[in-house]
Structures are given as structure tokens and as C-alpha cells.
Amino acid sequence: MLRSTVSRFASRGTRVVTQRFASTKTLKETLQEVIPGKQEQLKQLKSEHSQTVIGDVKVENIIGGMRGLKSMLWESSVLDPNEGIRFHGLSIPDCQKQLPAAPGGKEIIAESMFWLLLTGNIPTEAETRQLSRELAEKGDLPTYVEKLIDGLSPSMHPMTQLGIGVAALNHDSVFQKAYETGIKKSDYWTYTLEDCLTLIARLPALAARIYRNVYKYGAAAPPISKDLDLVGNYTALMGYGADKDLTEYLRLYISIHGDHEGGNASAHTAHLVGSTLADPYLAYSAALFALAGPLHGLANQEVLRWQLAMQKELGDNITHQDIKDYLWKTLKSGQVVPGYGHGVLRKSDPRFIALQEFCDSRPELLASPTIQLVKKTYEVAPGVLTEHGKTKNPWPNVDATSGCVLYHYGLTEFKYYTVIFGVSRALGALTQLVWARALGLPLERPKSVSMDALQDLINKGA
Ligand code: CMX
């Protein structure tokens, strides 16, 4: 049974009527129940342990990009170097078993992952459907953003366009407007949550519009369907709605790539910018520009570029020795092998493994020359990178395969791949933004030192 509620945060006079499944709690109501416990936990940590020492700061932390330095709170996930990511303690296989899928689908969907990240609870089927519906109802882009995006040059990188579009959406930020009118600190999170939901809801329409403008001569997209989940709508808006396998792949990819604790460049940027009380649109657009760097989110397009160049140079029937030689050629020319290595992980990335298992369950993917090359490279690259001796982690990360599967499915425009990552990472980065406001986390402001100041500290034996 459905009943209707009108969101009190409906922006710009638009009445957003959310269909609610009777007896089902909304995401906000669930979160409201969880917040007091976490606030109490933080209060206790502050009052009882503020001065407890949990580690040292070494010179290598300061000059080495703060690797390994435990210096920020991040509630939704923790990354273990050997086990990989866990979302509120759940591994990717746990999530695959427990989180609701789309009707008729098998893979995790963004809504169930977002619910888990935000509340720490597994949503029911009905809660997941209700959230899908709420997002679909909020998913249309305002006309001013459509016009802005349509006015950008198709030759501008899709990630630049995505960042611009997300920043422009802040025109309707309910947090910003409420802040201007003077709201209580304890209410920050409710307005932030409303903005985060609207932003997640609008990302598919924005990202798909960019895709159509850049690659399909601005062809019109179908309307958002109230009966589809977020990713179902995203593929439909891009023009791939009929491809059920691609949609299932993207559901999995977008869910498991949504959060990777807080220190990675995009998540950390969202947290840093959000800590100034910038609204979620501004915080997440900043994160997207961090994601656009080749050592981070752009790696998925780089992997494919590298693989295709290898395929072109080596032709058919590529042997392990051919790949070995090609890897050495890459390394000797001073380049990194894209898709391998990681700032924290020290084993094969479980996200890589989950995507490989998706391929293993589909004969047509196993027969794809691109996927076969990913598999063969995996058999050779860790040995070569170990012999090369530089990287601390010779194993593949998620990007070693993510773009190659998209390529097989006909989504061949690899400059677009990081945009899909950008749709995904919103799940984790925006979750933390809500929690940062609910917990009243302060403005981030670490101490920097010059090399002379560092030398002085060393001399003093500090
Ligand atoms: N190929 C060649 N050299 C590599 C390498 C790779 N795949 N990975 C690391 N190295 C090198 C580093 O460049 C560094 O060299 P220098 O000492 O000359 O600077 C050295 O090995 C040590 O690096 P590290 O401590 O093992 O790794 P970092 O934490 O510095 O970097 C990462 C991590 C991901 C940037 C790096 O492994 C890399 O550039 N990989 C390829 C790009 C890639 O796949 N990025 C996707 C990351 C996934 C994500 O964003 O989530």
C-alpha cells in the first residue's frame, strides 16, 4: 500500500510528492534513529580519549603524501590493505548476498548500497524500492543546468562538464538557503541529506546528458521512469536501457565503487570542502575534479587506452611473453602500468575480483578479446611489477578491468568512463558529508611545515 508525503524541502516551489510504502521507514527516519548513538560514541571518545596517542608522525608521512597517517574520521567503510574494502564491516561478497537487487536483477543496486553506507543497516526490499522511487521523482534536471551543459563544447572533457554541472546545481541548495536564514547546527544534517538525495537523484540525468551531447550529437533522452532504479534509469537515459547485462554490470560497478574509505583524493576533497560548510553540490564538484586525475579516477580510461595500444601493436594471439615484453616497455619508458598498484591495498582489489567474477559468469564476456587480455595481463603483470621492484603493490586495482567490460558492451567512449565512476563515488562521499554534519565535525585544518621547519623539528628530536 502506498501513501504520499510532500517533502518540506522541495526546492524552488516544486512540490516533490514521495510515494511511501506503508509501514516502511524512510531513509531519513532510519538515519534519525541511528544518529544519537553515534553522537554519543563521539562524545565519549572526545571526553575520555582526546589525549590518547594512537601512532607517531614520521617524516615519511609528511613528505610521502600522508600515506598511512590516521588523521580523519570516516564512518561508512574501512579499507584493510590485505582484505580490501568493508562497508560497515561487510565485505563485497557479504553485500552481494545481503543487499537487495533490482526487480528481475541479481546485482547490488546503488540504493541498497547507499542505505547501508548511510545507516549501517541492510535495507528491506520495500525500503530499497521506496528509495528508488524517491530518487526517480527527484531526478529531473532544472532547465538552467540543461542549458548550461548544452552550451559547453563537446570537445570539453566529460569530467570537466560533470564538475561544472554539479557545481551549478548548488543554485537550488536547500542547505545553503537554510544556512542563510540561520538554522541550528543540530539541524544541518537534515538539509544536507536533502541536498545529497537530490544530487544523487540528478546525477544520472546530468551524466547521461553529457554522454548524449558529446557522443550522440545531443540526441534527446527518454523521460525518467518512476519504476526503475537509479542505474536502470541511467543506462536508459544514455540509450542502453535495452541492454540488461550492461545495466546489471553498472549496478554492480556503481555500488561496489561507491566508497573506499576517506583518504582517497576524491572522498577526501569532498570532506575537506564540506568541512567549510560549503553545500553538498560544491563539495562534490570539487571531489569530481580530484577524481579527474590520471592517478585516481582517470585510470580506468588509461587502462583501456593502454590495452588497446597493446592489442594494436601485438595483434591477435598475444602470448604471455608478448605481454611481459610490453609491460617492460611501458615501465622502461618511465610510465606506470595503469590499473596496477594502490596507495593502501597490498593484494588484488576485491572490486577487481567481483568484476572478474561477473565476467566469468557470462560466456560472451569470457570470449571477448579485451577481457581475455585483462585476464592474461593479470597472470603476468604482478610478476613483472615485483621484479621491477618499485611499487609496493604489484596487484590489480578495480580499474584494471572496469573500463574493459564497458568497452565490450559497446560503451566504447573511454573518456567517459570516469564520469560513471563520478556517479558512483557520490554514494560514499555524500554519506560522509551527512555524517560530518550530524556529528558536528570541525573545519579541517592540518598543520603544514616548510622543509626548514621540518629540519628544525628533526634537530630538536621532536
Ligand atoms: N606501474 C609502475 N610503477 C608504479 C605503479 C605501477 N602500476 N604503481 C606504483 N608505481 C611506482 C610509483 O610511481 C612510485 O614510483 P616513484 O618512487 O618513482 O615515485 C613507486 O612505485 C612507489 O609507489 P607506491 O607507494 O607503491 O604507490 P603510490 O601510493 O605512490 O601510488 C598509485 C598509488 C595508484 C597512484 C600507483 O600505484 C599508480 O600510479 N598506479 C597506476 C594508476 C592507477 O591504476 N590508478 C588507479 C588507482 C585506483 C583508485 O584511484 O582507486
Automatic annotation (TrEMBL):
One Pfam family this sequence matches: Citrate_synt
PROSITE patterns for this protein: CITRATE_SYNTHASE
Keywords linked to the UniProt accession: Mitochondrion, Transferase, Transit peptide
Example of a GO MF term: acyltransferase activity, acyl groups converted into alkyl on transfer
Coiled-coil residue spans: none
Protein name as it appears in the record: Citrate synthase
Matching InterPro entries: Citrate_synth-like_lrg_a-sub (IPR016142), Citrate_synth-like_sm_a-sub (IPR016143), Citrate_synthase (IPR002020), Citrate_synthase_AS (IPR019810), Citrate_synthase_euk (IPR010109), Citrate_synthase_sf (IPR036969)
Keyword Transit peptide: yes
GO terms (BP aspect): carbohydrate metabolic process; citrate metabolic process; tricarboxylic acid cycle
PANTHER family (alphabetical): CITRATE SYNTHASE, CITRATE SYNTHASE 3, MITOCHONDRIAL
Any one of the GO CC terms: mitochondrial matrix
Residues annotated as catalytic: 296, 342, 399
Localization terms from the record: Mitochondrion
Entry-linked SUPFAM superfamilies: Citrate synthase
